[in-house]
Amino acid sequence: METVLQQVINGLSLGSVYALIAVGYSLVYSILLFSNFAHGGFLVIGGYICYFILRSIGGGIWIASLAALMGAGFCAVLTEKLAYKPIRERTNVTLYLLIASMGMSIVIENIFVIIAGGRFRALPPVIPTQPVSLFGIATTSMFDILSLVTAVVFLSGLQIFLTRTKWGLAIRAAAYDLRVAGLMGVNVNRLISIVFFTAGLLAAVGGIFLSVRYTLYPQLGLITIKAFIAAVIGGLGSLPGAVVGSLILGLAEMLTAGFISSQMRDLVVFLLLVITLLIRPTGLFGKDVKEKV
Amino acid sequence: MFGGYTEGIIILLCINSIAAMGVSLLTGFTGIFTLGHAGYMALGAYVSSLLIMKAGMPWLAGIFLGGTGAMLVAWLVGIPTLKLMGDYYAIASIGLGEAIRLILENWQSVTRGARGVPGIPPYTTLPVALAFFLVMAFAMFCLINSRYGRAFKACRDDYLAASLLGFNTAKLRVLSLAISGFYCGVAGALLAGFLSFIQPIMFDMIKSTELTSVVVFGGLGSMSGTLIGTGIITLVTELFRPISQYRMLIYGAVIVIIMIFRPEGIMGQKELGKTFFRDLTRRLKPADKRHGGGVKR
Amino acid sequence: MKRVCVLGVFLVLFVSFLAGPAFAADTVKIGYLAALTGDWAAYGQTELKSAQLAVEEINSAGGVNGMKIELVPYDFRTRAEDAVNAVRRMIEEDKVSAIVGANGSGINIATAAVVNKAGVSQIGTVSTNPFVTMDESGKVRPYSFRICFTDPYQGKLIAYFSARELGRLKAAILYDVGNDYSQGLREFFMKSYGNYGGKVVADLGFRGGQDVDFRAQLTEIRKSGADVLVLPNMGKEMALIMKQARELGMDEIVFVGGDGYGEFMWEIAGDAMENSYWINHVAPEDPAMQPFFASYREKYNDECKEFVNGILAYDAMYLVADAIKRANSTDPKAVRDALEKTENLELHHAVITMDEFHNPKDKDGVVLVAKDGRGQFFKKIKPE
Q1: Exposed e or buried b for every residue in A48-69, given b needs 16+ CB within 10 A?
Q2: Which of C183, C210, C213, C261 to mutate to test the interface with A (most CBs of A within 10 A)?
Q3: What is the pLDDT of residues A138-176, one digit of tens each?
Q4: Looking at the predicted complex, does its ipTM rise above 0.95?
Q5: Residues of A in contact with B259 (CB under 8 A)
Q6: For domain C17-149+287-352, is the CATH number 3.40.50.2300?
Q7: In whole angstroms, what is the distance from residue B121 CA to residue A43 CA?
Q8: By CB distance 3.0 to 4.6 Å, which of A175, B27, B111, B165 could disulfide with A30?
Q9: Residue A285 counted as domain residue
């Protein structure tokens, strides 16, 4: 029983970090209908900005995080303007955007290979990680609790932004139909910039937590493939779906590793993905996109 | 006439072209986007090398059985999963491709897991690779110009209209996947014979995305574009070898730039042939720009 | 028209590339195969920098036989097919006399076919898999060498040290399923551990690269009651495992690892590193290596944190230079013969004699203990 509880706690804390990243995938998908594989790159950018400010300039964690969030958001907007905008203005085939995003993820990764080197770097211990005992039956770390809290704070912040502000309303409208939203007087380009900024910002939050926990290196973005799968399981384009999908994935990973076999862990993840798609292609909370005739 | 280096590049070019033709049939001609075809290469490579080494099969039979094995798996996997349309199949294919690789990694008693299979007889020589390439390219060009090829294109251009016209679209899609699985399987088997050593890690998602980006780069719906695309990408990565660290950066940038300035790929939907050169000499007008404006499908 | 131009440019590039570079007679070329991009970039970049340092030193001391060494480094982005082309290019285009690298056994096995056919020696730096220098039928590969010890030996060292020196007989092992080095080392550890009276109570895997969370496996290990955790992995994973183990409150278990140890692990794992043991090729405080670290720091304004790769790459260059000197020729075949006859060659980190399987003979295992923020020399061991 204790082990089950321990694995469930492990799973939830892993899921909460996935959620921050998965939400970014879903947000971009809901507007532009493509999976932005450069999303992992934004995370790496956030991580490195935080690292350099902490190590070289010597700012505090708050300044470093703020700069990382803004920087990653800005880079996300820049990526959109440089790479995606010319494509989406020219054609409406989302496949091209997908391929361009893969190219961008290679570019971002290798920029860091060149300027920062391939070495694994760890952020200074800015976030406490000491073990915390939960009622004496399971152990977790201060870090997990903080990451869970941060995920909740940022995700509810996003929810408030989407439901209570004018731009949030515009984003939700655009998620139904971007063109119609444009016709109704929404500045589509600015809207897309805001979406990418938000996605980059959330990615940077995930990036800081991931690099504290798992170190920082140019290929760190690759692990976002799991978060992407979580977004798909929850239903691409749905924010609650991304969160629920992340928690399911985190739990599935930990429980498989703990009770079946640790080698089967990734296999289960990928099979879960395929099975979800077969039974409910739009994921748990996805909106039904009808093919237009 | 050629040194070993040039020979190596040509062999690799042949192997990559065979795999890319398979992906091109599926993505460019049938309109099914995949991100997991390295899995079929892995199957071809493992089936053929294990048959050759453990069952003592002649290598030619091994290559064919490797291709057939990949085709069989593609067919079985395709029946349920090809019901998915658009991006959703692409996402599922990531899962399928990775699952194949993970099974190979975990099934240690047969595949030796991550340590790989060493000592595969080096049967992929230049003539073998060239012969396979020529035969398979010829077959592919025949296929895309046949009744089936047109049916595939009909599936791609308008799935509903094609089925209304009486095409069994579901079957055609599975068929296209099976054939592309065969091409990738053969390519994998040839790669095993070229390297004489295989490891599951060689067939990861990066390899899959490379295959697909080459096809898009060359032009969706152009088989000769696929071949040109493979050639250019292979040469670019070789040419930039001396500036080692910057090589992958350039590779990524080339993909993005092509998508920005010529998303339809180098060749668009045209084939290299008589009409192409005639058009060229007439100084073709700049590539037609389709005005999308919106981003919805 | 634009299209014709583009095609033309590519044609010109292709032709110029077939023509190959000019051949200079007063230099001797040595190829260096390193992963400069991709997952192993941290190690590959350090190796290349250290090799370049060695080349500079050798050249400023007059070169070998009056010739300057020219390093020809190529990246292989951790892919075997790319490495095969890189090696072919070194041999065919650059006419290298020998090749050093790569930093991964799988790559060395894949390139072995090429170098042995072409007759140019290749010296693996940290390629510990037995098949690097030996083919499947157990015959030595004539042109394949290495400067490190092998996995069977290393596995035995870890088993001997855990069971005999530490007296810990209940081991848990956590290895990377997707990594050939890790799989091999685990296998050889398990083979020897029983002979020393130990028992493996938990044998768990993970997948490097994507898996960065090991708490599920660690929870299992805690349940199994193991008193030593054997880590045959790459540095990043080992550091993460140790950190997460301590976060889960596993304070009693002792960590013993292999040559994946790197100083950068301290940044990741922090205090969790304390009192862990590492079986390794070299000790960073080896007095003989201090000049190397100093010049590395001076030249690159950076610490050589992946010191195992750095030192082995550095000494591999001296090994090749010595062979060229003794062969008194740049002919790859003569260089190979000289390499094979290497005897009691005093390098910086060890004295090297090649055995009949092209492995350095009787290399000591160095045990490091992690204390006070760095890996310190603990003792040299030779298993019974």
Answers
A1: bbbbbbbeeeebebeebbbbbb
A2: C213
A3: 777 777 788 888 888 888 898 898 888 888 888 888 888
A4: no
A5: 83, 87, 96-97, 99-100, 103
A6: yes
A7: 44
A8: A175
A9: no
